[in-house]
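User: Before I run my own analysis I want an independent prediction to cross-check against. Here's the chain; please return only the structure tokens and, at the end, one sentence I can use as a sanity check.
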Amino acid sequence: LEADILGQVALGYSAFIDRNRAVTATRLTVFPLRPDVAIDAGQLLRAVSSVWPENGGRVSLNITSERLLQDLLQTSPSHNLMIEVPAFMAADPVNTSPIIALHRHGNTLMLKGQPLKELPREVLPCFTQSIIDLSDDRRVAANGVAPAGVTRTIPHVLAGINSPADMDGAFSRGAVAVL
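Assistant: Structure tokens:
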């Protein structure tokens, strides 16, 4: 069963590294090989849990298919699975109920990217962290200072870190972890 899903996706991974330089989780990026083929979210969860069982390590699912992520939002993943929700999907009212349900279920939800519009008020508290790409970090050009009127209300993880200098800079600008 899991072999079916593995033939339909390409997988990538990176490490979550905290300020103490400890690996605290794995980010698993899931790319459908054929965007026109529906992938079974339950099969994906079973395959992931065979590597990361509920009592195992923490893994963040970075699903690149909107349709697959939409299906995944309707499931009840094990508690060690963190779900990354792109900002545009978090802002869509159609996703409010599934996001709240996953939060109540005890899953860690992470907001991926900068929201282009305000999130529904009841959704924002569901996210424990945001993931911001280094290329989108507005504090880089401003020497670590947030632009006027910009405040972060949840801790952030900086993605796209490729060197120790990038890592040090991310932590000096307030990141709680890097990818």
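Sanity check: The longest strand covers residues 9-18.
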